[in-house]
Amino acid sequence: MKNLKVLNIDSTQISIFSRVLCYLPHLVKLSICENLIQSLPKDIKELKKLQDFSISNNKLIFLPVQLSQLTKLKVLRADDNKLEFLNVLTQLPAKIHRLKHLKEFSVSRKQLDSLGEQIPHLKDLFKIGFSGNALRYIPVELKNCIRITKADLSNNKLSQFPNALCALFDLKPLNLSGNSISEIIPGISDIKDLEQLELKKNKLSSFSSIPLQISSLEVIKDLNVSNN
Question: What is the superkingdom listed in this entry's lineage (predicted)?
Answer without folding.
Answer: Eukaryota
